[in-house]
Amino acid sequence: MDKPPPDMIAVLRHQLLAWYDAHARQLPWRVPPAEGQAGRRPDPYHVWLSEIMLQQTGVVTVKPYFAAFLARYPKLEDLAAAPLDDVLGLWAGLGYYARARNLHAGAKAAAAMGGFPASLTGLLAIKGIGPYTAAAVAAIAFDLPHVPVDGNVERVLSRLWLIEAALPAAKPIFRDAASKFEDPHRPGDFAQAIMDLGATICTPRNHACGLCPWSGSCAAYANGSAADYPKKQAKKAKLVRFGVAFVYLDPNGVLVRRRPNEGLLGGMLEVPNLAWRDTPYKKTEMVTSEMDPEATWIEGEVVRHVFTHFELRMRVFTIYTANIKSLDGYHHLALGALATAALPSLMQKIIASGQRALDLASNP
Question: Is 225 helix (H, G, I), strand (E, B) or coil?
């Protein structure tokens, strides 16, 4: 794309900020624009917490989690001092669990510094903070002239200037395009304004170009091609992996263990299960130390769960005993603790599937 003239950038900034002043979303971590112009700054802890939660997750989903975290950990120091297992339990269901571990580690690091550093370099040194989050916190919390670039911003810029380069490979091109808007005048409001524009007006589908403050300058609107942007690289077919889970139930609980801290679902709880692989398991391969061949197992449904890069299909087997025998490395989790334990949504679905299978077997 050609370099837009400075006066055009100034006009675009003015138009977007005027639109934001009138149409800013009300979000629990946000300071309204009128209050921001009056000198009120948002709490860096609130901004950081919301940005970590919003990574690959929508606003509607994040709101109750944000409220729950602030109720439990009202200050950065409270989160830093919390046991990791408590943090993982409160995060359960939000997905992408590495974010929870990084959130905890980042809170410890920031608390040790006496708070979040007011610089892009300082923010990038904190675990779990990448270029986007650092720019967002720097702009929104500290009013530094940075423009964070997420999917919403990429979409807006691609349509505004007809950027033909395909994502995700073209991310550096979009960061360069966004940097042209860096300005010390209300950088925090501008960052939130361009995010709001992408989230509410310049949406992937059903974009409301007639309501957009930039429609007069938007190249895609002018030639009716907004739906064609941003350009995306062809996606590879999502891989399918297979596993087998064993749900050991008794009247009071279920058998679980802690996954290793590193890797997918790291540090979370899981029921006994066989290693995930690229081919389905045969019945003869399911007789392991974790599935006693002498026991009476109820074969249930296949639980499907979609991760970022693959779909997992887990065959679920359930057994019910008066008192669960302990397996090496496992412990008993009370049924009353299922809702608050560090159980990822995959394991919650598997346990629920096992309970359904048990109910069907008991009441045919």
Answer: coil
Q: Which residues contact 149 (CB under 8 A, 6 or more apart)?
A: 132, 135, 171, 174, 175, 178
Query: What is the 8-class DSSP label of residue 335?
Result: G
Distance CA 119, CA 176 (A): 19
Task: Report which DSSP code applies to 206.
Answer: S
- Cβ-count burial of 5 within 10 angstroms (0-12 exposed, 13-18 middle, 19+ buried)? exposed
Mean pLDDT across the chain, nearest whole number?
92
Amino acid identity of residue 131, one-letter, is P
Q: What is the pTM of this model?
A: 0.80
* 190 contacts 147 by C-beta, under 8 angstroms: yes
CB-based contacts of 98, cutoff 8 Å, min separation 6 = 266
How far is it, in rounded angstroms, from Cα 303 to Cα 245?
9
CA–CA distance, 26 with 24 (Å, rounded to integer): 6
| Average of per-residue pLDDT across 63-90 | 96
Residue 249 has pLDDT above 80, yes or no: yes
Strands 269-270 and 253-258: antiparallel
CATH numbers and ranges of domains, the chain: 6-228 (1.10.340.30), 239-362 (3.90.79.10)
CA distance 290 to 329: 11
Q: What is the pLDDT of residues 221-236, one digit of tens each?
A: 999 999 999 999 988 8
The string of DSSP letters for 163-180 reads --SPBTTTHHHHHHHHHT
Residues known to be catalytic: 51
Tokens of 362: 């008991």
